[in-house]
Design a protein that fits this description.
The protein is of the alpha/beta class and about 325 residues long. The chain is about 30% helix and about 25% strand. It has helices at about 20-40, 50-60, 80-95, 105-115, 205-210, 225-240, 250, 285, 305-310, 320-330; strands at about 10, 40-50, 65-70, 95-100, 120-125, 125-130, 135-145, 150, 160-165, 180-185, 215-220, 245, 275, 295-300, 310-315. The strands form three sheets. Strands 5-9-4-1-2-3-10 form a seven-stranded parallel beta sheet, with helices on both faces. The radius of gyration is 21 Å and the shape is elongated.
């Protein structure tokens, strides 16, 4: 289909209580710059149940307009209900491009919507830009197993759709929201929703691990040596007020839960301080920490790739370095 406007849309995912998930609010930040660059409006799309909180948050974080679709059938995410609602909106309003969070739900919804609209989809983006004249989005994402970064253009079909990893961009501070709110009455019959949510089982561990919102992350990799090594990391993290992260190698070895994983197949993070302990620095991991302001690496291998991106490096055994760090922290508080 052809775009009817130069507007850029951001899907704001909602929680079961109707509040906005962080990833959608984060995407309003690059969305604002891209919409301004191409001379269109920044439109937030909110689908859910009892979503006034999410609508307000989208307005406060920079949306010019909020399109809201509300109904009991949207309280729990289902592919059929959400894709039907979103496709209906796109066909009516005709945006030129759309950003969706690369969450579990976003990764399910985006390909379904793109297929129905017969348009392209670029998944798991870590950087965005837009050509002001053509409106073509430059979607940058890891390719070939994370061994290089590819920039992809979709010039022939609209809307352009991309999923973007949580934590890549930062939310702007909230301000007085003045967005126009348009409420669309779109409902999906129960017989057209082929899946039902029978029970929601909470992952208690993942609820404790807020890597995307952490100011300090202390991560361990293969060099930690085992679950007992993470006990030391947890001890030091508590002193630092940090959240414990991990590389894929440590998670695959079963040393720590997947909810702690940072990297291409984990979470993208943007803390003020990221301390990598015993992490070699594979490109898949580096893709997940590109948003960190300061990176400190502790590794006994002076040639480890992590030192190429670190602002500060310590060549040494983490089991000797971390206890010294912990002791210095304790001294500073006495």
């Amino acid at each position: 289909m052809e775009a009817k406007t130069r507007d850029l849309w951001v899907l704001i995912e909602t929680n079961e209580d109707g509040s906005a998930k962080n990833v959608g609010l984060e995407l309003l930040t690059p969305g604002r710059a891209m919409a301004d660059k191409q001379g269109g409006a920044l439109v937030a799309v909110v689908i859910g149940h009892q979503i006034d909180g999410a609508v307000k948050a989208a307005s406060e974080h920079g949306a010019d307009k909020v399109i809201a679709v509300e109904g009991a059938e949207y309280q729990h995410y289902t592919t059929d209900a959400y894709s039907t609602a979103l496709v209906s909106l796109v066909e009516k309003y005709g945006p030129t491009s759309m950003l969706i969070g690369a969450t579990n739900n976003g990764r399910d919804l985006a390909p379904r919507v793109s297929c129905r609209l017969k348009t392209g989809l670029t998944a798991d983006c870590t950087a965005l830009d837009i050509d002001a004249e053509t409106g073509n989005v430059a979607w940058t994402r890891p390719a070939f197993g994370g061994n290089l970064m590819a920039t992809i253009l979709c010039p022939n079909h609209r809307p352009q759709i991309g999923t973007v990893r949580p934590g890549v961009f930062k939310k702007t501070p909230p301000c007085e929201g003045k967005a126009e709110v348009v409420r669309e009455d779109i409902h999906v019959d129960a017989k057209d929703i082929r899946t039902q949510v029978l029970e929601v089982i909470r992952d208690l561990d993942s609820e404790k691990v807020d890597l995307e919102g952490a100011d300090i992350i202390l991560s361990g990799g293969r060099g930690v040596g085992g679950p007992e090594g993470f006990a030391l990391l947890h001890e030091v993290a508590e002193l630092l007020g940090a959240t414990v992260g991990a590389s894929r190698a440590a998670v695959d070895a079963g040393w720590i839960a997947h909810s702690h994983q940072v990297g291409q197949t984990g979470k993208s993070v943007g803390p003020k301080l990221y301390i990598a302990c015993g992490i070699s620095g594979a490109i898949q991991h580096l893709a997940g920490i590109s948003g960190a302001k300061i990176v400190v690496a502790i590794n006994k291998d002076p040639d480890a790739p992590i030192f190429d991106v670190a602002d500060c490096g310590v060549v040494g055994n983490l089991f000797e370095v971390l206890p010294v760090l912990a002791e210095e922290i304790r001294k500073s508080r006495t």
